[in-house]
Input
Amino acid sequence: MYAAGLMSGTSCDGMSGTLIRLSAAHSRPSLLTVAHAAYAPTDRRLLLDLASGGPSGASVFARAGEIVARASITCVRALLRKARIPARRVAVIGAHGHTLYHGPHDPAGPVTFQAGNLSRIAEETGVTVVGDFRPRDVAAGGEGAPLAPWAHWRLLTSPREPRLILNLGGIANVTWLPAGARSQDVVAFDTGPANMILDLLAARATRGRRTCDRGGRMAARGRVHPRVLARLLAHPYFRRRPPKSTGREEFGARLLPAFRGLDAADALATATVFTARSVEAQIGRWLPAGSRRATVYVGGGGARNPVLMRALAGVLAPRRVQRVGDLGWPEQALEPVCFALLAIARLKGLPNVLPRVTGARRAVCAGVLVPAR
Output
């Protein structure tokens, strides 16, 4: 079985995709190839404006769905071209879409919304698509996130080594996998900020010329401001008990005023340590004592930021901090692979969410299925 996975993270840099092969029901999948389709600057601005809560009409939300679908189609075609596999041999595409609003604690009622026209993707690629994963878990009383821990458990549990899987996308999330973990042993939640605030500060400092602090170069020149850091670490999200998830609504542009008066390098240095310290504090507060002996495997775009990785290694010691690439999965590939596996489970009608992680009443089979033409 061949399956593709697609992920557009909260950093909004584009669509990341993977193509995997499964040779048996319980075998470890093989990663065949990866691809990335960047959003055009105007499309990225539209998605960021919507995700930041800017007022827009229904037509703009509809256009966002088409933008995400086009990037998905481009990514899938690139995967098939690189792997030299025809679309008819691919069983399913797992398409996460792009989150425009995630409000499991919205005062008007729990809600989450991911843009991406699934029908367009199925029609243009000729492959069955599974997407819109989060709403089913929300309907069952869950947070709708994080979803990847189910796949982390299936994919990365070791019989001997306790592991922490730390994903540094726009938001950071952690999955605790004790050695030989059963599904009920897994603990996972969003720890708080990661690349999102770093990207916003870099864009502000360069007046939009850069979308990120590549390699942490600006942060490396700055110094950390303890008072600003202390105010940031007092954010109420950190006191909330798991199950919990967060997004741009809490750790996006509304944090920027906290950095007022700092130059760009100092703001980025402080935000980098803020991410590392918040990860460490949340792991220490909410995970079992056994996690202190775990090896931390880091994925997502933040794993390519050496300044952030050094900060994490410092605060998480004596734990070893490594990249998920050391487990055979490139940093940017792990999340799309997870959604490919979620889609396969949906095809088979199997539960693909861990209710202990999301807080749902039961384990649901999440995802809307759109058959190929």
